[in-house]
Amino acid sequence: MIDAGTWSAPGRVNLIGDHTDYNGGFALPCALPRRTTVVARRRDDGLLRARSTGATEPLEVLLPGARGEVGGWGAYVAGVAWSLAEAGVAVPGADLEISSDVPLGAGLSSSHSLECAVALALTGLAEVEVRVPALARIVQRAENEYVGAPTGLLDQTASLASVADHLTFIDARAETARPVPCDLAAAGLELLVVDTRAAHALTDGAYGSRRDACERAAGRLGLGTLRELTDDLDVDGALARLGELDDDPEAVRRARHVITENARVLQVVELVGSGLLREVGPVLSASHASMRDDFENSVPEVDLAVETAVGAGALGARMTGGGFGGSVVALVDAALVPAVQAAVRAAYADASLAEPGFLTVVPARGAGRDA
Ligand code: GLA
Questions:
Q1: Are 264 and 287 in contact (CB under 8 A)?
Q2: Which atom of ligand 1 is nearest to the CA of 18?
């Protein structure tokens, strides 16, 4: 019987493929070298108690708990326990000590890293092994139905399934995650993540309204998801079909982003597989333009970071994750990283914006048991 243990799960940066997951499409994230760690000990009284170094209020809930019973950070913990119980896992009571060095609210999946670490800790104590597509769905249900964010499967899958030194190629419809080797250092490159400090939230309606527009477009075209539009890889044909939606220009723009973004993910997988890492840069920048102009989920602070990074020599850059703020990922020659950072810092100071945060990323290992 497992009475105690330590589990951890990373945040993620999505190299490319945003707002494709809930459309059954493709994404290419990697795990961040920043993690949430849960030290867990079984309790016999059915109580789930948790403390986090990042929060003053502890959580206490009698399992299995009721949907929405707890708000704030505790919802991510209680929500996962609730969702596991809904899936038939006999979740034991537990004391959880939580700590994290994933930047909070920066679009780097701090909340999913918490949820995934808790999911592993609770299934670990329950001595039940739930594998990735199923566990990712359980975590997604916690996020959708307990926390109230209508998110897809990208973040949980990246956190749970990533492998060190690899990107993770996700096919959301097939619910598969394939590691793609990616040795940036050998190519003299680095992934630079810029936390723009611009507020990022996925529960305030903007994310949901984008999702609704995509689903509206698919529905009107007689499709289950927008992914079906590009099943034969005919991007031009797919774009032409959007002409059928000309009375709904918003749906056309959102769908155009999804169609072209899926194609860009496949292009990047191909380039990475062929060792043509430098050529990934312009594809990242094209993805950013698509989010800015078609998906309309960027904000001026993010655009400033992207433009400044590219102006200072980055091979390409884009907003990463849900958007409406959050972080930018840039592909940069290692030797140029200090100059790019300095340029972004200076541009932010000139615009009287808060100082951005920086993180250089080597794709890290996914979630697991540490002790
Ligand atoms: C957030 C969601 C994901 C995904 C991204 C956008 O991170 O949690 O499911 O939709 O936004 O790609």
A1: yes
A2: 12
CA 321 to ligand 1 center in whole angstroms: 5
Q: Please give the Cα distance from 317 to 300 (Å, whole number).
A: 15
Q: Indicate which atom in ligand 1 lies nearest the CA of residue 22.
A: 10
Tokens at 130, concatenated:
């739930």
Q: Are 322 and 103 in contact (CB under 8 A)?
A: no
Is residue 234 part of the annotated active site? The answer reads: no
**Residue 291 C-alpha to ligand 1 middle, in angstroms?**
13
For residue 43, the cross-strand partners are: 93
**Cα-to-centroid distance, 252 and ligand 1 (Å):** 20
- Residue 37 CA to ligand 1 center (angstroms) comes to 22
In a mutational test of the pocket of ligand 1, which residue from 151, 227, 298 has the highest number of ligand atoms less than 8 Å from its CB?
151
For each of the chain's 371 residues, which pLDDT tens digit applies? 899 999 999 999 999 999 999 999 999 999 999 999 999 999 999 999 999 998 989 999 999 999 989 999 999 999 999 999 999 999 999 999 999 999 998 999 999 999 999 999 999 999 999 999 999 999 999 999 999 999 999 999 999 999 999 999 999 999 999 999 999 999 999 999 999 999 866 667 899 999 999 999 999 999 999 999 988 879 999 999 999 999 999 999 999 999 999 999 999 999 999 999 999 999 999 999 999 999 999 999 999 999 999 999 999 999 999 999 999 999 999 999 999 999 999 999 999 999 999 999 999 999 999 99
| Type of residue numbered 152 | G
Q: Which atom of ligand 1 lies closest to the CA of 151? A: 9
Read off the tokens for 19: 């707002």
User: Could you give the C-alpha distances from 291 to 108, 142, 268, 286, 363, in angstroms and in order?
Assistant: 17, 27, 17, 9, 24
